[in-house]
Amino acid sequence: MIVSELALRNWAKLPPRAQIISDLTMLGLEVDGVEPVAGEFNNVVVGEVVECKQHPNADKLRVTKVNVGEEQLLDIVCGAPNCRQGLKVCVAKVGAVLPGDFKIKAAELRGEPSNGMLCSYSELGINIEADGIVELPADAPVGTDVRSYLQLDDVVVEIGLTANRADCLSQLGVARDLGAKYLVPTKFADFKAKLFAQAAQRVTHNEVFPVELVDDKACPAYASRIIKGVDVKARTPEWMVQYLARVGVRSIDPIVDITNYVLHDLGHPMHAFDKANLQEKIVVRPAQQDEEIVLLSGETAKLQSNTLVIADTKGPIALAGIFGGEHSGVNENTTDIVLEAAHFAPLAIVNRARQYGLHTDASHRYERGVDPQMLLVAMERATELVLEICGGSAGPVNLVGQLPDNSHTITLAHNLLEQIAGIGYSQAQVVDILSALGCQVQAHDNQTYTVTTPSWRFDLEIPEDLVEEVIRVHGYENIPTAAPEAKLSMRQFREADLPLNRVKDVLVNRDFQEVVTYSFVEPKLQALFHPGEATLDLPNPISVEMSQMRLSLFTNLYSTLAYNQKRQQKRVRIFEAGLTFVPNADAELGVSQELVLAGLVAGETVPQGWNHTSQPVDFYHVKGIVEDLLAITATEVRFAPAQIAGFHPGQTAEILHQGQRIGLIGKVHPALAKPYGVSGDAYMFALDAQAIALTHVPEAKPVSKFPSNKRDIALIVNENVLVGDLIATARKAGSELLTDVHLFDLFRGEPLAQGTKSVALTLTISADDRTLDDAETNAEMTRVVSALAQEFGAVLREI
């Protein structure tokens, strides 16, 4: 955002320049640069070309006599093509010093004396594009110092604005903030009152152009006005050319210049149509898919259905709040115009310009929010300038829709202000500051304030916003510095707490690499692991491939496998700890965020070597890794067969703790390999990080001095009986003498009956205080065998 010091002073009585620039940054409007509007020069005055003749010895030169308010006319040779008799010009007299230390001396050019120079903008260091010398207004007083006449003792200030400060995207907006800082009112109230007091006098005909609002949510209000008989070839006043140049805008023609001036001065975008090129009525509606419009830049835009357009009965004539169309634009043959000023909802404009590779001053403001109450002010100001510069006759304003009231009423507690600021404020200070910012403030006896925010402050919504405003305007520099107090306390830590990094170490020790992936995934790929599940779709995604929040870590892990395999990495062992985002109406903001630890294994169990045979990863290899993880936790789990989307139905298990699923493990279904671009088998697992957050608290126990007894039993059970359930039941059935149970053999086939299997278990039986005899050992075995027979129908194998 660029502001001119002179433009700011037109709106408010301000202190010296140095203080303004310093206070802008302290107000949060960071100053990125300060540049003078003209170079250093002297002895340059307003002159009038009294006589202009062709140079006798040069085709491109002219010999002039110039009146600079002195007794004698100056003879000056000039090469500018626009030099002519009667023109008011900028004359550098002999002795003048122009930017670049260029000194003007009396000289003779091709035999003709030249006592000075007629200057162009560039020769005076003024950043205005123009051919030839400066053409001053006809009423410019001869002999006046040019620096004073053009008010060149001015600077332009570049301000870096944050996105929430759309109210400062105008000269008036920045002046309002400075006025609040110095507790001085702006001239806007008087300006507005005078503008509307004369509004009726501007209306000289009754014609209005019909307007239809199809989408009144995207465009709540649309104002238009017909001005007939305008002279589009009129010259833009020098003061306006200078103003626009100082805010970084090139002068084009008087109508465009007026709308640009209103935009930068008041902050409200405007546009003008050639009435002769409008068909029947203006319609504000969404674009039809693939509808086309030729823009003012000459480019053809193919529209998307999410774009709001201004159209007539023939088709689009402008991209609403972004860019005008070429067909309806004002041109040199225009005589009647239709001025428009509309209020567009920010969400109807945001990102639309980017869709078409555009970024305009209008879209920049509408995306951030434009004061709806400025709409009619902008219309009247633009009308006033058009009639003054281009002539014509104006009709009444045709306002369709209703101007929204975007103010908020907020209750602010005084103790909240002082708690956040760390210093005390009087009630009068708070009321003065908030009132100066345009708020309506009521102070109450209970040390609270009822504050109604102004229409131009979209960013004030909660009490903390008002606190920030008071602190900002009062001055951050007024908050006393204080040395920080370090109040240390011992962190609450339980010995049973298991840090996630400790769990990760187990995986790292098993040759895993940690990966970090985006929380966004491609919908088509995620649907393969989560078919039919509700998802959280992003309203403005970076790309289609990153348009959904992930429901699990599987999609990204499997995609990472494909990425590595394409780079000749066949053995992949990766894991990630990250959040998942599951829609949940009962959760905060409608989404449950859970921390999950997930891993993927593919390729060989160990790297290929000379002293071993390569073996591919299988389910039990990955299950062993998960069991290693669970071994350092205090979570007692069991594995149960499961059918889960995206995984092989015969090689998938859910991990259960107290009947609740806390994870899963399985082989990725081969059908997913092609869509993801994966070759070969892959196994994945996932664990709820919260469920494995506790570990075993060490408890010292003496080592038994007595020998242990081992007994092997072979049991015949049905094929569908899980070995893990057998072991769990055996441990539960045994007494404190049963110290271990583990599987050492599994057999199927003849002579066993079909549908059965033989499970061989080793029971370790011992006591801490004695050597067990055979009777005690056999009794322990009997208890285990009986429990297994009763629970699973297990029979001791005698074959």
Automatic annotation (TrEMBL):
Q: Which CDD domains match?
A: PheRS_beta_core, tRNA_bind_bactPheRS
- FDX-ACB domain residues are 704-797
Which keywords are on file for this protein?
A: Aminoacyl-tRNA synthetase, ATP-binding, Cytoplasm, Ligase, Magnesium, Metal-binding, Nucleotide-binding, Protein biosynthesis, RNA-binding, tRNA-binding
Q: Which InterPro entries match?
A: aa-tRNA-synth_II/BPL/LPL, B3/B4_tRNA-bd, DNA-bd_dom_put_sf, Fdx_antiC-bd, Fdx_antiC-bd_sf, NA-bd_OB-fold, Phe-tRNA-ligase_IIc_bsu, Phe-tRNA-ligase_IIc_bsu_bact
- State the needed cofactors, names only: Mg(2+)
Predominant location of this chain? cytoplasm
Which PROSITE patterns does its entry note? B5 (PS51483), FDX_ACB (PS51447), TRBD (PS50886)
Residue span, TRNA-binding domain: 38-147
The record's remark on the cofactor is: Binds 2 magnesium ions per tetramer.
User: Which reactions fall under this protein's catalytic activity?
Assistant: tRNA(Phe) + L-phenylalanine + ATP = L-phenylalanyl-tRNA(Phe) + AMP + diphosphate + H(+)
Query: Entry's PANTHER family?
Result: PHENYLALANINE--TRNA LIGASE BETA SUBUNIT, PHENYLALANYL-TRNA SYNTHETASE BETA CHAIN AND LEUCINE-RICH REPEAT-CONTAINING PROTEIN 47
Quaternary state and interactors:
Tetramer of two alpha and two beta subunits.
Q: Which family does it belong to?
A: Belongs to the phenylalanyl-tRNA synthetase beta subunit family. Type 1 subfamily.
Query: This protein is called what?
Result: Phenylalanine--tRNA ligase beta subunit
Q: Please spell out the taxonomic lineage of the organism that makes this protein.
A: Bacteria, Pseudomonadati, Pseudomonadota, Gammaproteobacteria, Pasteurellales
Tell me the gene name.
pheT
